[in-house]
Amino acid sequence: MARLPRLTLPGWPHHIIQRGNNRQAIFASAADYRFWLDLLAQQAPRYEVLIHAYVLMDNHFHLLATPKTADGLPKLMQAVGRSYVRYFNQNQQRSGTLWEGRYRSTVIQPERYLLACMVYMDLNPVRAGLVAQAQDYPWSSHGHCLGQRVDRLITPHALFWQLGNTPFARESAYAELVRSGINSVQQAALTESTLAGWALGEPDFVANLQKHTERRVVKKAAGRPVSAPKIIIK
């Protein structure tokens, strides 16, 4: 069966995951994390991709991004990926592939899932046992969202701005979302939809997306579209 192309639609937020080959480390030092982030900051404006959130783990990373063009996201990922592999292989005196195949991504319904996705990403280091609190992890956009530092890479999504009328209100509201966390069903929906490449959204959202692409946006099941489980942050 032919492999489906990635679901990439301009103007919508995309959740992206890329893993190291055989789950091997893709970052070996603080300098590696900084180099990757610098590459992303340099290339994202070039390819007109807005970065809303990120988290870099030792053997994979997540991005939440909105491309302005149909080919912006694939070109960005290719440019950053190739440059980083050259850098990493040279520094580690290794050769060959670094990534576990192509990156995985999908479109998410912003009103339902964008903030949930940000929380899911920020809590990755906590779930992995690397830190006790998300704010203690240096390689994510969480510190920027809390006002602890300014990250030139980040363009907050409109839904983040709607959390409050002042920076303090937005930061406090988002910190509370992270403290509340997400449940295992929400976590699975965000992970599985991205790895499979199926859109994550309610039926009306999915139906609207399908009008803008010939590529199927949800898996066929008994002739009826499958709606994603509803995620509500309380």
Q: What is the H-and-E element order? A: EHEEHEHHHHHHHEE
Helical proportion, percent range: 40-55%
* CATH structural fold name: Alpha-Beta Plaits
- Whole-number total of structural domains: 1
Going across the major beta sheet, what is the strand order? 2-3-1-4
Mean of residue pLDDT? 92
Determine the structural class based on helices, strands and strand pairing.
Answer: alpha+beta
Low-pLDDT stretches: 228-234
Q: Distance between the terminal alpha carbons, to the nearest Å? A: 41 Å
Report the radius of gyration as a whole number of Å: 17 Å
CATH architectural grouping: 2-Layer Sandwich
**CATH homologous group name:** Transposase IS200-like
Determine the strand fraction and express it as a percent band.
5-15%
Give the topology.
Layout: E1 14-19, H1 30-46, E2 49-56, E3 60-67, H2 72-92, E4 104-107, H3 110-122, H4 124-127, H5 142-145, H6 158-161, H7 167-180, H8 184-196, H9 203-210, E5 220-221, E6 224-225
Antiparallel strand pairs: 1-3, 1-4, 2-3, 5-6
Give an overview of the whole structure.
With 234 residues, the chain is α+β, with helices and mostly antiparallel strands. It has one domain (14-225): Alpha-Beta Plaits, CATH 3.30.70.1290. Helices cover 42% and strands 13% of the residues. It is built from nine helices and six strands; from the N terminus they run E-H-E-E-H-E-H-H-H-H-H-H-H-E-E. The strands form two sheets. Strands 2-3-1-4 form a four-stranded antiparallel beta sheet, with helices on both faces. A hairpin with a 3-residue loop joins strand 2 and strand 3. Helix 1 runs antiparallel to helix 2 (72-92). It is globular. The termini are far apart. The relative contact order is 0.17. The model is unreliable at 228-234 (pLDDT under 50).
